[in-house]
Every structure is written in C-alpha cells, then in structure tokens.
Write a structure and sequence with these properties.
single chain; 223 residues; alpha+beta; 4-stranded mixed sheet; 9 helices; 6 strands
C-alpha cells in the first residue's frame, strides 16, 4: 500500500479549515484499504494583527464581511455544510477573535509528540472555537486542550509563558506565503500536489488515489 503525506495549511479560527478537515477525514476513511495517509498540520494566520487579548469577534466579522446580514448568510451556509459532516458550528457563541500564534505553537509542540497527538490538538482547537465558543488565544484554554490531548499541562503552561518557537511558527507561515498560499485551507499532497479549499470528500479521495497510483507506477519504472 502506498503512503501519501498531506500537509494542511490552516488557521484554527478558519471555519472552512474545520470543514475541510472533516471532509478530508471522510476521504481518508474511504481509501483506507488502498492508501495510507499521514497528516501534518501547518500554521497560517488569517488575522496576524489581532492583539494578544483578541478582538470583539462579532463586530470584527461584520466589519470584514460588510454587515451583520452578510455574516448571518455566511454562517447559515456553513452550518448546513457542517451538519453534513458532523460539525455543529455555534457561531453566536464566539465572542473573542483571538490572535492564534500561541495555538499554532501548541500544534507545533504536539507534533513533537507525534501526528496522532497533533491531530487531537487540532480537533480540540477547532471544536473549542467553533462549537464551544472558547477563546483559543487564552493560555488557560490552550493548557486545557493540551492536557486533554495527552500533553503535559505544566510543560505547556511554562512554554506558553516564553517566546519559545514563535520564530519557527512565523517562518513556516512566511514559507507558505512565499509558496503562493494566500488562503486556507490549503492541502499539499506528498510535497508536490496542491488542493485548495474545503473540497468535497470525493475530490480528496480521488486525489489520494491518483497520487498513490503515480507513486506505484514510478516505483515500477525504477525496477
């Protein structure tokens, strides 16, 4: 069975990223007998200028999208799409629009413990923000998520008090932008194929199958 790596460039406050995650997981389940898939989470910040304490999320969104009616329309569409894949968006509960640099640091530290831990943290961050309305820029919330995901709470609390790995995360974001990533989610398959946006599960499944097929053919050609 061929192994395909998927690097997901995303931000934990991006609703389309949460949707894309769920859709990719359905695709991975569909091809699990044909392709082995490794998932890595890569950082991106939609709102790099947000202060550490965050902003009034509802007001900021209305300003960005052109008023409350536009926000409500976007949210209704996302709620329907979310229901199809088991996401219960609760946009009304989101009060703070956070600075997500520390959330990405947490994801970076989680990856040091392995992909499974990192994926648990990513899931918990999305759920905390979009379903529970928790502030994922708050260190106490991040420490809770770390502990629930199998990381050492005290270690994470201490790391969050420092500047540890901020430069690493920011350089990864810079590298993604230099590659041409201007919006998220952005999926990089096997380091060379790109899928942009929260595509449907069949699009992801077909892409994974096609890449696995190309890898098989390339290997046979080397024999």
């Amino acid at each position: 069975m061929e192994r395909v790596t998927v690097d997901i460039v995303s931000d934990v406050v991006c609703p389309w990223c949460y949707l894309g995650k769920a859709r990719l997981e359905l695709a991975i389940a569909e091809v699990q007998d044909e392709v082995s898939v490794d998932v890595n989470w890569r950082p991106y910040r939609l709102n790099p200028d947000h202060p550490q304490e965050g902003v009034d999320h509802q007001a900021e969104l209305a300003r960005k999208l052109g008023g409350k009616d536009a926000v409500d329309r976007a949210h209704e569409m996302l709620k329907k799409l979310g229901e199809e894949v088991g996401i219960r968006y609760n946009f009304e509960a989101i009060k703070i629009g956070p600075n997500t640099l520390d959330a990405h640091r947490l994801l970076h530290w989680a990856m040091m413990e392995g992909r499974e831990i990192q994926d648990r943290v990513a899931t918990a961050l999305f759920r905390a923000n979009f379903e529970e309305g928790r502030n994922v820029g708050d260190h106490a919330v991040l420490a809770d998520i770390a502990a629930q995901s199998g990381l050492n709470r005290k270690v994470i609390e201490n790391l969050l008090k420092t500047e540890a790995d901020k430069d690493t995360v920011l350089s990864e974001i810079d590298a993604a932008q230099k590659m041409g990533v201007t919006g998220v989610p952005f999926f990089i398959l096997d380091g060379q194929y790109a899928v942009s946006g929260a595509q449907t599960p069949d699009v992801f499944a077909n892409a994974l199958r096609e890449i696995a097929k190309l890898k098989t053919e390339a290997r046979k050609g080397m024999i």
